[in-house]
Design brief:
218 residues; Arc Repressor Mutant, subunit A; 52% helix; Rossmann fold; 10 helices; alpha/beta
């Protein structure tokens, strides 16, 4: 049996942390190894505990989630930051993705959605719900210059297909079901795509998809 996903909770609301702990305690493949109340404690806890996934709130005292995410991504690039927050507009989403967060989920999400998100960022490195992915795609499109010099498409036909599905917010499991392949195969394709593009985060991956016309912006 594989080792459980080690999760650190970073949120200044005790009731939120306690609720998440109770929820995740039911999952044999997920283990909460610690919980802290602000971003600075979060960075220190990552250094001490080496979690696989950090569930990160945004608005916190001492150090906010954006600053903590940037610091964790810089110092501990193998630790995945999944943002769990009530803020859902692009003014919050884009800076966090650019800071190194690999996933974003609303506190209004259902319990199974949170569990799926944790598993997704651990295995594939990316989780964006479809409505969030749509906002990200449009925000990135708005930031691109109107005239772009053409760049060669480096991806295979299957990789292009997977990039399109990632940009739409699909998890590896859903992509695997859609394409009738294994989740492991999807994860391998995703790793190859990131390496080919030199992409550091999901925002850069989506930017490539928009620039190359892989994703259509409505």
């Amino acid at each position: 049996m594989s080792k459980p996903i080690r999760v650190l909770l970073v949120d200044d609301h005790a009731i939120v942390r306690e609720g998440i702990c109770l929820l995740l305690a039911r999952c044999k493949d997920i283990q909460v190894i610690g919980q802290v109340v602000d971003g600075k404690q979060g960075v220190d806890a990552v250094a001490q505990m080496n979690p696989d996934v950090v569930l990160m709130d945004i608005t916190m005292p001492v150090m906010n989630g954006l600053e903590a995410t940037r610091e964790i991504h810089k110092r501990f690039p193998d630790t995945r930051v999944l943002v769990l927050t009530q803020h859902e507009n692009k003014e919050y989403i884009m800076p966090l993705l650019q800071a190194g967060a690999v996933g974003y989920i609303s506190k209004r999400a259902r319990a199974n959605e949170l569990i799926e998100a944790i598993r997704a960022v651990h295995t594939t490195g990316v989780h964006l719900p479809s409505e969030i992915a749509h906002r990200v795609v449009n925000a990135i499109a708005e930031s691109l210059p109107t005239a772009l010099s053409p760049k060669p498409v480096l991806l295979t036909e299957r990789e292009v297909e997977i990039v399109r599905l990632i940009a739409s917010g699909m998890s590896s499991r859903v992509i695997a079901e859609r394409l009738s392949i294994s989740t492991k195969t999807v994860d391998t394709h995703r790793s190859n795509i990131l390496e080919k593009l030199g992409a550091r985060n999901s925002a850069e991956l989506i930017k490539f998809a928009i620039r190359e016309g892989i994703v259509n912006v409505k």
